Amino acid sequence: MVEVARNREPTLADVARRAGVSVATASRALSVRGPASASARHRVATAARELGYVPNPVARALATRTGTRLAVAVAGQTAHVLNDPYAARVLAATATAAAATRDVGVSLHWLPLHDPAELGRLTENRDIAGVIVVNPTTPALATVPRSARDRVASIGIGTRDVPSFDVDNATATTTMIEHLLATGRRRIAMITGPEWLPCTQRALTAYHRTLAESGTPPRLAPGNFTAAHGESAATTIMTRWPDTDAIFALGDLSALGALAALRGMGVDVPGDVALAGFDDIAYAALSHPSLTTTTNPVEAIAAGATTALLDHHTSTPQTFYPSTLILRDST
Amino acid sequence: MVEVARNREPTLADVARRAGVSVATASRALSVRGPASASARHRVATAARELGYVPNPVARALATRTGTRLAVAVAGQTAHVLNDPYAARVLAATATAAAATRDVGVSLHWLPLHDPAELGRLTENRDIAGVIVVNPTTPALATVPRSARDRVASIGIGTRDVPSFDVDNATATTTMIEHLLATGRRRIAMITGPEWLPCTQRALTAYHRTLAESGTPPRLAPGNFTAAHGESAATTIMTRWPDTDAIFALGDLSALGALAALRGMGVDVPGDVALAGFDDIAYAALSHPSLTTTTNPVEAIAAGATTALLDHHTSTPQTFYPSTLILRDST
DNA sequence: CTCACACGTGGAAGCGCTTCCACCACAAGG
DNA sequence: CCTTGTGGTGGAAGCGCTTCCACGTGTGAG
Fold it and tell me: SS in 3 state form for B248-298?
């Protein structure tokens, strides 16, 4: 009498019984790699379908000693990062990708800059299948034990054995600077992100190279992607180089902060100074003037990192995703 | 010879051995409720600390037949909700709370409006410990089997057996309208959210009551919290009631859209029309003029829902979190 | 001085999977 | 005809925890 009790989800044992094979064979037939005959595969698949069998990820995780969730670890100062829309967006995108690919959850963690070992600890957690680390430093990556390297993917800098996924902001920066040059701007300043970030470094290199080609000297102000820093950076720039005619901020929030500062100083945008941002956040289209910016394909990046992690693609060292220029009124 | 093999995390068996008790007792001593003597409790706790024992959530979940993650289910049209900063913020807050309280992950799901049963299906998933449903409809909540009701918490409307957590937007609306009245505005329009949302209904009731007390007739325009709808709603309002002197939008994005529309029509804010929003998003402080708004304590709400779910607090039917008025230049 | 009844405790049986290992055919080589 | 493989299979032992159950103990009441 093969009857599944009411109120109980079918298990692999039910499937095996119905298919007339052992649990071991059923397990192998359902997994792609295991040795199993074609006929067994077929019968098990049919039985599973008829029963509406759904594998229990918890049992599988326990048996294979892997985790049931992906950790998203964001580097930065906790207080600052807590209301970071970028982190929230990465998390949402990862959660969506993880739920779509496999049935795994996502948890969010902060990586204090002063304690690089926290990342290593996270990778040792028993029930974490993999870690997507956002903007890690090289020392932090170095704390990951060699054996756990295949359970880490980076959005930011990578290493030889940690694949990295990021927006191609070198090209994006070049494109943006060339756009500003094409519209007649010659005294172009840049508000950067934290200098320890590799994406800041890549953008800086592109900025210097593009300016050098057109023979214009650089004007730099440090920032940290927040609106407040954008404001003070714009003030600094206009005080130090009053004839500046364009500002490119590596982050829309900084750009919008700069916009407020410029308005406060009576500087017309784009009349006196052209202004451009990075990320294309929702508000960029709503400001006055609306902000020229370049996209950050976070969803694609997070999906890439997620599948790399879940499929153990160790063969992809670095992937850069293209950004597209969004022209609006501020330039 | 009590020696833990290298390269292996200590398990409960290791702790039990070191404490000189059985695994069963160790388990009971570690759990808060189980029967265990004070001395056993103490010895097990000490052994656990010395060994650096961390319970394996996967094994626990398998044994107790509970899940290892919390699902955050957002009601709405997928395309719209995918880049909804509010959903991302709820997810991030939930993930933070879940990681802090227990060691569980979070996954993100969309609930299409046309298929209320999706929520019921989610609650039946074997490895989901609980579902936090954002802005559910009553029919959707009704699809949750009675036995699973204690595994659901709602941000939005609740039922007798599903606790709900939300911002007290009735009071917030009253406060905002009273603020507008106090600054001399008398022809106050409101841009609402989708009418099927309970929070829209609560705000509407408060709006009508407050206006009725001051003897001013209502002026309503429907919206859906997006900037685009805010723009068209503002246009509609100013066309239909040209003497409007204040607009309150139930969402900052709508308010900012309205601001753009008003600027386009040559209406001065706050000179001709005072403008107020809801949520206090990051950009509200950066617009020109900066936006008067009222906070949405998403982090506290998500933390409340998370702990309610993980601790099976079924005794709290409804909790409303206070919003605070943020006065800026737009009113 | 019994009997009942707590209360703590250890043994052991799961939870639902994966995977090691032994086994059995059967085909191919000597 | 016997050995040596080979691919498919089932039994069973885990993974690390919780919890049922039975079994002593020490206490109070009868």
Answer: EECCHHHHHHHHHHHHHCCCCCCCCCEEECCECCHHHHCCCCCCEEEECCH
Tell me how far apart the alpha carbons of residues A213 and A190 are, in angstroms, rounded to a whole number.
16
Does residue A4 sit within a domain?
no
Instruction: Report yes or no: B273 and B184 within 8 Å, Cβ to Cβ.
Output: no
Which pLDDT tens digit goes with each residue over B125-167?
A: 777 888 999 988 888 888 888 777 888 999 988 888 889 999 9
CB A283 to CB B106 under 8 A? Answer: no
Which of A:144-203 have CB within 8 Å of B? none
Residue B284: inside a domain? yes
- Written as six digits, the tokens of A49 are 């379908």
Laid out side by side, the sheet with A274-276 consists of A219-221, A188-191, A246-249, A274-276
Is B325 a member of any domain? no
State residue A102's pLDDT score.
Answer: 67
What mean pLDDT comes out for the span B23-35? 88
Nearest CB to B105 within list A54, A96, A107: A107
Stated pTM of the model: 0.82
Asked if the C-beta of A303 comes within 8 angstroms of chain B's C-beta atoms, the answer is: no
Same domain, B181 and B272: yes
Q: Give the domain CATH number at B137.
A: 3.40.50
Write out pLDDT tens, residues A8-59.
789 999 999 999 999 999 999 998 777 888 888 999 999 999 998 988 888 9
Number of domains in chain A: 3
Q: How far apart are the first and last CA of chain B?
A: 75
